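Final report, results section. Input specification for complex C-07:
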Amino acid sequence: MSNLDKRTLSIVTFIDALGWEVLKGRSFMEEELPHRRPLRSVFGFSSACVPSILTGRQPQEHGHWSFFYKSRGPSPFRGLRWLRHLPRRITDRGRVRSQISKRLKKKLGFKGYFQLYNIPFQHIDRFDYCEKKDLFKAGGINQGNSIFDRLDNAGVDYHVSDWRSGEPENISSLLGAIKQDSIRFAFLYMADMDALLHQVGKNSDRVDEKLRWYEHRLRELLDCAGQHYDEVRLFVCSDHGMATVHTHVDVMAQIESLPLEFGKDYLATYDSTMARFWFDAPEAEAQVRRTLSNIPQGRVLSRDELEALGCAFAGDQYGELIFLVDAGTIILPSHMGTAPITGMHGYHPDHADSDAALLSNVPPLTDPRGIADVFHLMAAEAGA
Ligand SMILES: [Zn+2]
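Structure output:
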């Protein structure tokens, strides 16, 4: 057989939150995937990291960061103002919010991941949402192209998981595509590790159990692909790691005790690891800064630092002031949730627990150092 006839399949398996430090001290496919390296993550949550993996760019370039930001035009949520009249004991319930999120997503035609989380309905019409499109389809990125635009334009036959489906379903659908013998590249999406790590933390035995599960499934995948292709190039990558939570800090209560009115003097979004502010009154900014400077578990990020992190957005889209807590601390309550949690990410990328991982059965064609470099690796693997 000549080299030209050699049939190759490259599979990139994305496992959400499979951090370098999560893998440390554990065994996971050392034999099959001997090429292993940490990848520096991107500052932000998966909503920022995944677009970086798919585009090769920093958040300030692709335009995806935290889900909610201050609306500049008419808010897509302006029709939700009436919800403020419902009693909070109803609207604060997770299940109620999930139901409303589901219906709203359909009504607004959002194609990406959408959850209202704990955003106050009282002020929801002041916010906009960053993931309106399906990230895993061509045209899904706010600014610029993704690997899927690239693959489509190059006419590459590929398979990509439906991110709405569960892991077993995503694996069987990839196996089905492999058996058709037509693809040369695949992106397999696995999200359950993230949820598990949030719930039990990286030191739990249940993480080992879950790794065994992935190991079995990926071995089956390698076996099946090996029967259909001459060469199978398998990569496992992640977007970030997971830190163990040891401290809660109530930033919201401290800000709300100031003589300032939310929605009038300022607007804020409290993510699990950052508080983001927009100001309408200059004296509001001074008061908020003073309050934040007295919280020892976090600090305000300077413009220079945000720029170095690739998160200095045009027009301060995601906040005029960003307060970040130290790894292991969470802001509680936040607009993301009110229940304590064991693991969290979304800290400074310098922290070891933020590191993602890249494992493969062949040396990478490129030299990936950060998660955005996975894009170039995928483009090289797909010949796009
Ligand atoms: Zn997560």
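The longest strand covers residues 8-15. The chain has three domains: 8-59+135-243+349-382, 68-129, 246-340. This concludes the modelling results for the funded period.
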